[in-house]
Design a protein that fits this description.
Elements (H helix, E strand, L loop, with lengths): L2 H8 L6 H4 L15 E7 L3 H4 L3 H12 L3 E7 L3 H10 L17 E5 L6 H10 L15 E5 L15 E3 L3 H17 L4 H8 L5 E2 L4 E5 L5 E6 L7 E2 L27 E4 L1 E2 L10 H4 L4 E2 L2 H15 L3 E5 L9 H12 L5 E3 L10 H8 L6 E6 L3 H6 L6 H13 L4 E8 L6 H20 L10 E8 L16 H14 L5 E5 L2 H11 L5 H10 L13 H10 L4 H5 L14 E2 L4 H12 L29
Parallel strand pairs: 1-2, 1-3, 3-4, 4-5, 9-19, 10-13, 13-14, 15-16, 16-17, 17-18
Antiparallel strand pairs: 5-6, 7-8, 11-12
Helix pairs in contact: 6-18, 10-11, 15-16, 16-17, 18-19
The structure holds iron/sulfur cluster.
Length: 614
């Protein structure tokens, strides 16, 4: 298809900018001069994928190498997919518009379980067989990284190898090994056996899984020299690790349309529901000088007038105030806004608020996660009601009127009293506002309460817990709804069916591959999107394969059961997770890493907060 025909085709779809390529800072190379072509695939829309920091880092890092050309690929929205299939257009990379079928690597980043059908759909659109076993040649090699790789078993039949942990080093080691094997004409199996010896690489086809009659896993046996445990990789020194000095700047609006500067990786907190808080351990910070220098370069090279300081808990950054002082020296004269997402309630100071106020005033967002102190102790969210009220008072007196609060529903041990505590907290925050003499004049306050459904995830202390079932989720949503008596408190929540699917796949094993394939063949895709999600088709796919999704999601797991992810090593030990689970059931909190080390196991990486003086 020539350029004119392609342009004409784009005129008939929503947001043609999703597919056009050619954005500022996108990388175009001479394909005759590169040795490796890498299709970096984000299994969701352009707007979501283009907001993802990991993709920005690896895209730039790969393209710094002369021998590699890394291009971007996103899941086409349903309107464009229809046209692609009608006209026989295979899935293409944005930079060259070449079909990704002929690339060396097709690499997916897996950010959430509800994108798995999109991965299959993208392989199918590329004209490739879905199953790894049906793709016998070395290229294209289908690889995946990202947080879902801490339990990649539901994708074990489709992906040739998974990267565990942070990709900056291990990805390039695998690419170099591949190049060596390709040049000597070696086959895929030989390559996979060699790749499995690189730390951080998991090749699922090299593990045999046996099951008990009741469906639990009996054993996981490595073969052909593959390691019994596969340890994730981390970047040890964040100051010397790669960070791009420019991002591709989109033509169309994307979800996070701003420069993003990473402050640190990991989290000191240990909230017991939060997978990110465990799988990215230990905390490793960048120095304020590095952050300042990198942020400045990004703004200069992208033209963005807003920069976000990103991490799992921004106010835990030990150099935050000195950093803000340094950054204000150049952001202020250039009218560049600073935004600080992921602030915690308990260390949100008036000084910090003053600095944010200096630049930008918008709504405040906090995540108390549970409505009562008892339940906040169960989940180890070490935030007291007093701190929440003190912070809201500071914020209201500083001119804020809108507060957004995030909570979870269905947490282990949750009662109706805990749910009523959520709306009660919202109402009392509104009361607090009206009790303040120096509140903003002539303005009305609002509290938005956003309630997501708790999904137990691997590598958290709640990995053993049952997820509540759909009917119970809906009953509890009603408890919340009817307990809200204040018109200034608005509650919103997510669809319970989607949480149910997420729950099954988060802790699923490789028998779910058949369910996934059946769902895909029935037309499931974009399952995270309400307008596309089809529960009925999913239920049929489970049923046809004789698999009960509740076996994975709603079952309490014994501590000694072999989980599908137990042969993967993310640093935190199972013993630690069991200790934390027991503490949760007695509502006992665990101090954060900077107060006292809880010996989680992540010190094995020899770096980060584990070695700081307390
Ligand atoms: S070993 Fe201790 S300091 Fe290090 S991440 Fe684990 S709990 Fe935190």
């Amino acid at each position: 298809m020539n350029e004119k025909e392609f342009e004409k085709l784009l005129l008939s779809v929503q947001k043609p900018g999703r597919y056009s390529g050619g954005e500022l800072n996108s990388v175009v190379k001479d394909k005759e001069k590169v040795k490796i072509r890498f299709a970096f695939c984000f299994p969701d829309t352009y707007e979501i994928g283009m907001s993802h920091l990991g993709m920005k880092i690896l895209y730039s890092q790969f393209n710094e190498r002369e021998d590699i050309w890394c291009e971007r690929v996103f899941a086409p929205w349903v309107d464009f997919e229809v046209l692609m299939r009608e006209k026989g257009i295979p899935l293409f990379a944005l930079e060259s518009r070449d079909s990704i079928k002929d690339f060396d690597f097709i690499g997916f980043t897996l950010q959430y379980e509800l994108c798995y059908t999109n991965l299959l759909n993208m392989l199918d659109l590329a004209g490739l067989p879905l199953k790894s076993a049906d793709r016998p040649s070395l290229s294209p090699l289908v690889v995946a990284g990202g947080p879902c790789c801490c339990n990649p078993e539901p994708l074990a039949d489709f992906v040739d190898l998974f990267f565990l942990g942070e990709g900056e080093e291990v990805d390039l080691e695998v690419i170099d090994l591949y190049r060596e094997f390709k040049e000597k004409g070696a086959g895929k199996e030989e390559f996979l056996r060699a790749a499995a010896k690189i730390e951080g690489v998991y090749v699922p086809s090299l593990y045999d899984i046996e099951y008990f009659e009741d469906g639990r896993i009996k054993s996981v046996t490595p073969k052909d020299g593959a390691p019994a445990k596969i340890r994730k990789r981390i970047m040890r020194d964040m100051d010397s690790s790669y960070y791009p000095d420019r991002f591709v700047v989109p033509f169309i609006e994307i979800v996070h349309d701003r420069a993003v500067q990473e402050l640190f990786r990991g989290c000191i907190r240990g909230c017991r529901f939060c997978q990110a808080g465990f799988i990215y351990r230990p905390v490793r910070e960048k120095s304020a000088d590095t952050v300042n220098r990198q942020a400045k370069a990004l703004c200069e090279n992208t033209g963005y007038d807003e920069i976000s300081l990103s991490s799992l808990s921004t106010s835990d950054y030990t150099c935050l105030e000195p950093l803000l002082n340094k950054m204000l020296l150049w952001t202020e004269p250039q009218s560049i806004s600073l935004s600080l997402p992921s602030l915690r309630v308990d260390n949100f100071s008036a000084e910090l608020l003053g600095k944010i106020n200096h630049i930008r005033k918008s709504g405040l967002t906090f995540a108390p996660e549970a409505g009562t102190q008892r339940l906040r102790d169960v989940i180890n969210k070490n935030v007291t009601e007093e701190e929440i009220f003190r912070t809201c008072k500071t914020a209201f007196e500083g001119g804020y009127t809108a507060v957004k609060l995030y909570f979870m529903l269905g947490l282990p041990t949750e009662t109706d009293e805990d749910l009523k505590g959520i709306t009660d907290l919202g109402r009392r925050i509104i009361d607090l506002y009206y009790s303040l003499e120096n509140r903003p004049v002539g303005k009305s306050p609002s509290v938005s309460v956003s309630v997501s459904t708790f999904v137990p995830k691997p590598f958290t202390p709640f990995q053993f817990e049952p997820q509540i079932e759909k009917e119970e989720i809906e009953r509890r949503q009603n408890v919340l709804k009817y307990s809200n008596t204040c018109r200034k408190v608005n509650i919103s929540w997510h669809d319970s069916s989607v949480s149910f699917l997420e729950g099954a796949f988060a802790r699923g094993d490789r028998r779910l591959c058949a369910v996934l394939e059946a769902a895909f063949k029935k037309g499931c895709k974009f399952d995270g999107w309400n307008e596309c999600f089809n529960l009925q088709k999913w239920l049929e796919a489970f049923d046809e394969n004789g698999i009960d999704p509740l076996f994975y999601s709603a079952r309490k797991r014994d501590f000694d059961e072999i989980n599908p992810w137990d042969h993967l090593d993310f640093g935190v030990t199972k013993d630690f997770l069991i200790r934390e689970n027991k503490k949760a059931h007695s509502a006992k909190i665990t101090p954060n890493c900077r107060e006292k080390c809880a010996a989680c196991g992540a010190a094995c990486f020899g770096e980060g907060v584990c070695f700081e003086k307390r």
